[in-house]
From TrEMBL:
Organism: Dendrobium nobile (Orchid)
Protein name as catalogued: Uncharacterized protein
Any GO BP annotation: response to wounding
Phylogenetic placement of the source organism: Eukaryota, Viridiplantae, Streptophyta, Embryophyta, Tracheophyta
SUPFAM superfamilies attached to this UniProt entry: CI-2 family of serine protease inhibitors
Keyword terms of this UniProt record: Protease inhibitor, Serine protease inhibitor
């Protein structure tokens, strides 16, 4: 390999590197608290708290964050863009 890549998946648009894509530190917080913290950081994101039996679409959206919570309402998966 020559160290060069043309793979579109590895290409970042200008400014993309500064956009946060996941929030592992929110694990264990309530879904609403996690939603509040993400919204404070990036108000443009579309945030959804999803319960243990919640159903979601499988499409990827660069402005959406699923916040998965357990039966006690605590975040049990790292919230991330998608």
């Amino acid at each position: 390999m020559d160290g060069k890549t043309n793979n579109a998946a590895n290409t970042k648009s200008e400014g993309e590197s500064s956009v946060r894509r996941s929030w592992p530190e929110l694990l264990g917080l309530t879904g609403e608290e996690a939603k509040k913290r993400i919204k404070e950081e990036n108000p443009a994101l579309d945030l959804h708290v999803v319960g243990p039996d919640g159903m979601v679409t499988a499409d990827f959206r660069s402005n959406r964050v699923w916040i998965w919570v357990d039966s006690e309402g605590k975040v049990n998966r790292t919230p991330s863009i998608g």
